[in-house]
Amino acid sequence: MTLAAAVKTLKIDGRDCSARPDETILDVARENKIFIPRMCQLEGLSTVGACRLCLVEVKGSNKLLPSCVTHVEEGMEVTTTSERLDQYRKMIVELMFTERNHICSVCVSNGHCELQTMAQKLDITHVRFPYRYPQAEVDASHDRFVIDHNRCILCTRCVRVCDEIEGAHTLDIMGRGIESRVITDLNQPWGSSETCTGCGKCVQVCPTGALVEQGRSVAEMEKRRNFLPYLTLMRGEHE
Length: 239
What we know:
Layout: E1 8-12, E2 15-19, H1 25-31, E3 55-58, E4 64-66, E5 77-79, H2 83-99, H3 114-121, E6 138-139, E7 145-148, H4 157-166, E8 171-174, E9 181-184, H5 201-205, E10 211-213, H6 227-238
Parallel strand pairs: 1-5
Antiparallel strand pairs: 1-2, 3-4, 3-5, 6-7, 7-10, 8-9
């Protein structure tokens, strides 16, 4: 394959862009400093397309496509911002708030929460849908970490980092719909887990206050995610 054939050309918001055939729309947008909202996607982890915030319009398609799992095609014309997309994204974030019990003012991640930041970027001032107020548990049985299901948005970042980076696969998802929640082992208390290594990677990748370190104050709960691309690169070099 020639170099020319290996390069795809496309337009994103009217801007000419080039990409490798294995890249997604989100990859190319990020390389060209074009912002597309996302919650479940995180560099260094596999892509699952769970949150649907990264939906974009592609010329010739009536569907809104998730940019994180849609690969580029030659001549593709992509729109990342429109009234239609804004309405869909606002609705998705509002539904995230209604499905659990997010109370920012008393959350340890207030000011360092990606869901909170996303709501601000999308200019969400109120929620139009009725709150579900589920009876969600708080598991503080681990000696270092806490999982608060009230603040979980089921992005599965913690599940993926535990499996793909740490190799423990302590965490997984149980249930369906609004009853879904993150569990440890076979739905055992986190503190009694026999597989958890205590590395804390799951806490660092959590976008909200669902996974936190015990004893941390609001000012201390800024999470560090820079390790992921590095660890993924190192793992690839050793395989």
